[in-house]
Design a protein that fits this description.
alpha+beta, about 190 residues, TATA-Binding Protein, about 30% strand, 2 domains
Length: about 190
């Protein structure tokens, strides 16, 4: 039976923000060396930030998608750096952008070896095809989260939008797995 879980470690946060200003992606790509822009294949420009290591999709509408950060503080820092780079091409952002977390990816473990074959039968909302992928996909409705569970007890959680949802989802996972294990021993 699971005793306690190690805290989940955030691996990636995907967040969006709007600058409220139009951005010339061509101008940005011409003047900034840390960019990739190919409008024939994708409408956004990729802006790479070294510290904290991340990538930001910049759209001409002024909308941003930030990936690769591990905290909200890092997201804010990255957005601040994007605004500084935009200032160099005369795009002055006056309003503080509202940041919205879209997804948090975290990893951790349940201190238990898991029989994924039996769990896939006992838990609802699972997908398990060991020939395709060694992990069991388990979807929680409340809080909304998707887990990849591995037989050694390691896991990845995705789909949450804040720390509370992350904590609630791991608590719910533990409760559900514990109940399933108990039923199987039943």
């Amino acid at each position: 039976m699971p005793k306690k879980t190690s805290p989940l470690k955030v691996q990636n946060i995907v967040a969006t923000a709007s600058l409220g200003k139009e951005v010339s992606l061509t101008k940005l790509a011409r003047t900034q060396p840390n960019t990739e822009y190919n409008p024939d294949t994708f409408p956004g420009l990729v802006l790479r930030i070294k510290k904290p290591k991340s990538a930001v999709l910049v759209f001409s509408s002024g909308n941003l998608v930030c990936t690769g950060t591990k905290s909200i503080a890092q997201v804010r820092e990255v957005i601040k750096q994007v605004i500084k780079q935009l200032k160099k091409i005369n795009v002055v952002v006056t309003d503080k952008p509202k940041i919205t977390v879209q997804n948090i990816v975290a990893s951790g473990e349940i201190n238990l070896n898991l029989n994924l074959n039996l769990l896939s039968l006992e838990l609802e909302n699972t997908e398990y095809e060991p020939e395709q992928f060694p992990g069991l996909v388990y979807k929680l409705d409340e809080p909304p989260a998707t887990f990849l569970l591995f037989s050694n007890g390691k896991l990845v959680c995705t789909g949450t939008k804040n720390k509370q949802q992350l904590d609630d989802s791991i608590a719910q996972l533990n409760k559900n797995v514990k109940a399933a294990v108990k039923r199987l021993k039943g």
